[in-house]
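Give me the fold.
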Amino acid sequence: MDLREIEKLLRACKSGEIETSEAARLISNLHYEDIGYARVDHARAARQGFPEVVFGAGKTRAQIVGIVERLVERSPNVLVTRTDEGTFGEVRNVATDAEWHETARLIRIQRDKTERGVGPIIIVTAGTSDIPVAEEAALTAEAMGNRVDRIWDAGVAGIHRVLSERHILRSARVCIVAAGMEGALPSVVGGLVSVPVIAIPTSIGYGASFSGVAALLGMLNSCASNVTVVNIDNGFGAGFVASLINRRWEAENIEGRRQ
């Protein structure tokens, strides 16, 4: 629970700006808000560093809009992943500043653009077909306050392409590498940099790639010791973890988590 929010509510109650019953209701909702089909977690940012993200697949448009409406009341930045343009049109009814990102199939509301990253996050794809997953990672990292640089289509079949970007890769605080097929690119990047490399296996490839399983296993077996791996097509997870690695934590936030 966010102590600053509680203090703000208590001051408002003391000054007579809000009724005691309303203050009690708002304080109870700082933990989570039960709206029937979802329990909206308003304390997620205090615990994990970023507000709850809405996974759009499997939810109705009305459910997504209802969750977003509750989140934007408390959170300046909100993400909806794996959704569609029709849902975006309805979300704009409750958040007119929402953005639609077709490539990543992602809705983003970004009202707080404070830079929280220590350095840039560099995102690399093996091929153009890997861009949708990589872009999900990029948009997530940007929403969490990072500067993101993108290097597209630099796979090992033309290895000179990634080698020509060594100066950019070496400026990174964290690298994210998305690759399908045999998933070799993260190991190459891992051998070029001295920072964490988060590998995303994508479901791109022919039959023997098993919809990303071959890339996943290849990445898990990487001989580059700085490579770690998220799930198949999990751009969001890669962007989130990279942001936490890169984050410039405030002393009060660290102390709050110790408590």
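Residues 97 and 257 are 32 Å apart (CA to CA).
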